[in-house]
Design a protein that fits this description.
By secondary structure, this protein is an alpha+beta fold. Helix content is 47%, strand content 17%. The protein starts with a helix and ends with a helix.
Length: 119
């Protein structure tokens, strides 16, 4: 038996249904264990951040994308001791590429600013 059954279920369902090119699952539960809502909970899998890149999101707005993910994880969200909080970053491959290029450009600009300051 796995020590991360909810994370395993998330990975399986999203992989099978969305065929993501990127799927990153962050279990942030330990950061929230002290919250009042978590007192008495024995689950170590309550708070997740997901980054999902999939062509299945093409032509869909963020709310529709999130509804797709919520529908896939309905059981995990409704389960006692299941997911309490879910943060989603959903994008297409094109959006991911645009973000990568933007970040590279910003990094280049910051490096150029540092060079100017040194001169």
């Amino acid at each position: 038996m796995s020590i991360t059954p909810i994370e395993d279920s998330i990975r399986l369902k999203l992989t099978q249904s969305l065929n993501p090119s990127t799927l990153t699952i962050h279990n942030d539960s330990s950061l929230h264990a002290h919250h009042a809502a978590m007192r008495g909970s024995l689950s170590q899998e309550t708070h997740f951040r997901l980054e999902i890149t999939s062509d299945a999101f093409r032509s869909k707005m963020q709310p529709a994308r999130h509804r797709m993910v919520y529908a896939l994880l309905k059981e995990e969200l409704e389960k006692e001791g299941g997911i309490h909080a879910l943060q989603l970053k959903t994008r297409t491959r094109e959006e991911e590429e645009r973000q990568r290029i933007r970040e590279e450009q910003e990094k280049g600009e910051r490096l150029a600013d540092v060079d100017v300051e040194r001169a």
